[in-house]
Amino acid sequence: MVNNILEIKNLTKKFGNFTAVDNITLSVREGEIFGFLGPNGAGKTTTISMLTTLITPTGGTATIAGHDLKDEGADIRSIIGVVPQSFSLFPELTAQENLTYIGKLYGMDIKKIIERSEYLLKQMRLYEHKDRVSGEFSGGMKQRLSLAASIMSNPKILFMDEPTTGLDPQSRIAIRELTEELNRQGMTIIYTTHDMEEAEKICHRIVIMDRGKVIADGTSDELKHKIMSGHIVEVELDSEPKELSSELKQLPFVVAVHHSGRLINITVKRKEGVFFALSEFFRKRGLSVEEIRYKEPSLEEVFITLTKKDLRD
Length: 313
Known about the structure:
Elements: E1 4-15, E2 18-29, E3 33-37, H1 44-51, E4 59-64, E5 67-68, H2 73-77, E6 80-83, H3 95-105, H4 110-123, H5 139-150, E7 157-161, H6 169-184, E8 188-192, H7 196-202, E9 205-210, E10 213-218, H8 220-226, E11 231-237, H9 245-248, E12 254-260, E13 263-268, H10 274-284, E14 289-295, H11 299-307
Parallel strand pairs: 3-8, 3-9, 6-7, 7-8
Antiparallel strand pairs: 1-2, 1-4, 4-5, 9-10, 11-13, 11-14, 12-13
């Protein structure tokens, strides 16, 4: 049986008359990579800040590995790691010196600090740069060092707040691979990101927040099926036809049609016999079908559908 390492019930945070996090309830299973998605101002970072004891909740409760957020903040800080959005280590110190300082904060003896820091610097591909001043590092190197610092104490749960924002593609891939490796080693990871592809690739389960509330919770596949009114068939023709939406909608199994150039996306009620029926429909109209295939909605489409398209500050 898998235990929940994080339990949140009715967690709320208000800043004056503004409610940043509005009565959210959710749980995270031990060993998950759990993703927080949401537009700007959704409440993701405020939620992470409460769970990592940086700010105090206005209401509600949370427990992390059995420790109560309200009364056992010190115990929680001893078992978590945090990778912030921006570099928060000492730029004037070398990579090795930064990790040594973190180790001392956790009360580790010097032998353990040396062993752990060297292991992590190698794992983060920074060992050859261990004596360089960290302020000279590239953005990707700084973020890998931040990740190493966050797990010096081998935490039970790691909070990563948009760790790949502003990084080049190679650095994003490196951070993602390192995150997955830490998870394979047994670490539970809470991961906030704006990158839908990233969330879909690495997160076992995802929560979508908007305006301080949880509006969806599930695996990537579960979230996709929540917005589907049927199955989506994509038809690619060899030439751009005249408008066919009204004719297609008259077919008894068709729910909706979206026509764009040579591509026609058709939402259907069922799968049985659909390919043959659609092929016949286009053949009778003298249209040649290049390809016909089922299409799953992307996580980005789910996100836009649930949070709408309006811009957020």
